Amino acid sequence: MKIIMIFIQIVFIHLFLLLGAGVKALIPIPIPASMIGLLLLFLALCLKLVKLEWVEQGGNWLIAELLLFFVPSAVGIVNYDEMLSWQGFSTVLIIGISTFIVMSTTAWIADKIMIRKERDTQ
Amino acid sequence: MSIIFFIFVTSLLYMVAKAGYKRMPWPIFHPLLLSPILIIGLISLMHVSADQYLDRAKFLTHMLGPATVAFAIPIYKHLPVLKKYIGTIVTSITVGTLMAIFSSFLLSMLMHLNNQFLVSVLPRSITTPIAIEVSKDIGGIPTLTTVFVILTGIIGGIIGPAVIKRFAIKSTIAKGLALGMSAHGVGTNKAMEYGEQAATFSTLAMIFAASITVLWGKFLIPVLVSFIG
């Protein structure tokens, strides 16, 4: 029963993706259709046009199994021999260093803002 | 027939990898490393090319669309905290996305990455479905970007706890924002270890990072790309 519910909800969420694509076809907005769909579903929830129970189970399943949907694309890497060369090694190194920089600066700035916020409220 | 077969096998190997990773959380067992490796092994035994496989399993890739739409649900559920901390989120994530793009760009120039790789690595710090769109937009290769996004997530998940410790990050909100910004979904997964609040902020960081990077993809990245010709 739960599986059927999840399936129906996913079909319903999919409608918002189609709506997003429709909006994009009508007005040339420079953002991805899935992002427009996200905004539309968000608005529909805020305006109570869609109840949370209608989408929650299906949505949670999609988010929980998000990694599965990446697997085929990851297999596509075999088409790029460069990944096994110096080029690929450099890329992994760049990603490692850059991820470290992004994480530490974001954490540092957010921590500073939060400490200041706490001090101001005291 | 083979469409159903490949979707089934992909889901099965993914579930096996996921269960294995739960027991032995070593980076090499990460479902996004292990299951593609197993599938590559399988299709080469079956003499199926990667392109044939991709075509047959494209239904799974297509599901990234509704999965992105579904992120409206956590935003809606966390609306009160979002309103309260919108300034903190926007400020730290704007800086985070700029750091991601500029550090990737400068390091790639420094290490003489070829143009294909360089452009494809720029949107690597955001969730895959949106990274693919940005990649197409700026002239990158979506497959390469996907792999770089996955590597970003795995590396971010590994170094996350050490960075948080090293920089003595106290606020749970900051921990969540940093993990979501730097390692998207994988980071959010990690953030759960710091509690519900960290996971919430990680989710919000991920969504904001994707949205802001879409804008950079329109206005900032083309300027950078024009430098490399």
Shape of chain B: globular
The percent range for strand residues of chain B is: under 5%
Termini Cα gap of chain B? 45 Å
Strand content of chain A: under 5%
- Tally of helical runs of chain A: 5
Shape of chain A: extended
What structural class do you assign from the helix and strand content of chain B? mainly alpha
Number of strands of chain A: 0
Task: Summarize it.
The complex is a heterodimer of chains A (122) and B (229). Chain A has 5 helices and no strands.
Write the layout of secondary structure elements.
The complex is a heterodimer of chains A (122) and B (229).
Chain A lengths: L1 H25 L6 H14 L5 H13 L6 H5 L10 H36 L1
Helix pairs in contact in A: 1-2, 1-3
Chain B lengths: L1 H22 L7 H15 L4 H7 L1 H5 L1 H7 L1 H6 L1 H6 L1 H25 L4 H7 L6 H11 L3 H25 L5 H20 L4 H24 L1 H8 L1
Helix pairs in contact in B: 1-2, 8-9, 8-12, 8-13, 10-11, 10-13, 11-12, 12-13
Structural commentary:
Chain A: This is Holin-like protein. Chain A: It is a multi-pass membrane protein. Chain A: InterPro entries: LrgA/CidA. Chain A: Pfam families: LrgA. Chain A: It comes from Sediminibacillus halophilus. The complex is a heterodimer of chains A (122) and B (229). By secondary structure, chain A is mostly helical. Chain A has two domains: 1-72, no CATH class; 80-122. Helix content of chain A is 76%, strand content 0%. Chain A contains five helices and no strands. Chain A has helices spanning 2-26, 33-46, 52-64, 71-75, 86-121. In chain A, helix 1 crosses helix 2 (33-46) and helix 1 (2-26) packs across helix 3 (52-64). Chain A is extended and about 50 Å long. Chain B is mainly α. Chain B has two domains: 2-62; 72-228, no CATH class. Chain B is 82% helix and 0% strand. Chain B has 14 helices and no strands. In chain B, helix 8 packs antiparallel against helix 9 (115-121), helix 10 (128-138) packs parallel to helix 13 and helix 12 (172-191) crosses helix 13. The longest helix of chain B is centred in the middle third of the chain and has 25 residues, at 86-110. Chain B starts with a helix and ends with a helix. The model of chain B has no long low-confidence stretch (mean pLDDT 92). At the A-B interface, helix 1, helix 2, helix 3, helix 4 and helix 5 of A face helix 1, helix 2, helix 3, helix 4 and helix 5 of B.
